[in-house]
Amino acid sequence: MSAPETLHLDPEVLVLLALGERPGAPADMAAAETHLAACGACRSEVDELGAIARTARGAGSAAPMVPPPAAVWDAVQAELARDGEPLPAPIPLHRARRRWIPMAAAASVGLLLGAGVMYAATSPGEKAGQVVASTTLDPLEQSGATGSVRVVQTSTGPRVDVDMTGLSQGPGYFEVWLLSADATKLISLGVLDANSSGSFVVPPGVTTTDYPVVDVSLEPEDGDPSHSKNSLARGTLPA
Q1: What is the C-alpha to C-alpha distance for residues 53 and 110, in angstroms, rounded to an integer?
Q2: Spatial distance between the Cα atoms of 19 and 153, rounded to a whole number of angstroms
């Protein structure tokens, strides 16, 4: 009489556990944890995959992670299906333990993390690109507001990133401007967000050579698009 086959967790479940995700409903999570407590083989694989995940995250830590779209997991499943085996159900224990499972699970971790890093790098919110100029923003009129500004060259043109501290929130909003060196001409870039920061696309035909001064003002909510003349911080970008 042959020995009964050993039940093990599916590779998809191993991947999710290694990434710190919940593999389904609470009952599924409880079943997976119970199995891990009793199965040294699965526990070892989760530990190994977790180490791979931590290494990959560390390599991409310069860019904040953005959750990849649902199509990423579909691509992972399609890749696993190319081995000619039917994909296992997402949660139940898998009876036929095949040698390719650890490799497929490791590949899934790599695909998920790699796609996540790539998606983060191309996300509109990600501050990617080459910094070509930067300066500090100094307080005006004893406002106490300070900040920093960077001009980033991207594939679609220059962008201005502004980060402020010391802004006292009250009536109105904070607007970012580009001024000519003599302050006779100005262009509005946009409004800072609730975290007192913002990334602004430089309008076509405008350069920070012609408009090197970055100004942050407090604007009243009066419907007037012109500068309030209430500047809180200002800095000049190097030529």
Answers
A1: 8
A2: 34
80 neighbors 106 (Cβ within 8 angstroms)? no
pLDDT digit string (tens) for the chain, length 239 residues:
554 455 777 787 778 777 777 666 667 777 878 887 788 777 777 777 767 766 655 544 444 445 555 565 566 566 656 655 444 444 344 433 333 344 444 455 454 445 444 444 334 444 468 999 999 999 998 888 999 999 999 988 999 999 999 998 778 999 999 999 999 999 999 999 988 999 999 999 999 999 999 999 999 989 899 999 999 999 999 97
Residue type, 174: F
- Say if residue 52 is in the same domain as residue 89: yes
d(CA 96, CA 158): 55
Give 194's contacts (C-beta < 8 A, 6+ positions apart). none
- Looking at residue 169, its amino acid is Q
Neighbours of 24 (CB within 10 A): 16
Residue 46 lies in a domain: yes
Structural domain total, the chain: 2
Domain that holds residue 146: 130-236
Residue 24 lies in a domain: yes
The amino acid occupying position 216 is V
Is the pTM above the cut of 0.85?
Answer: no
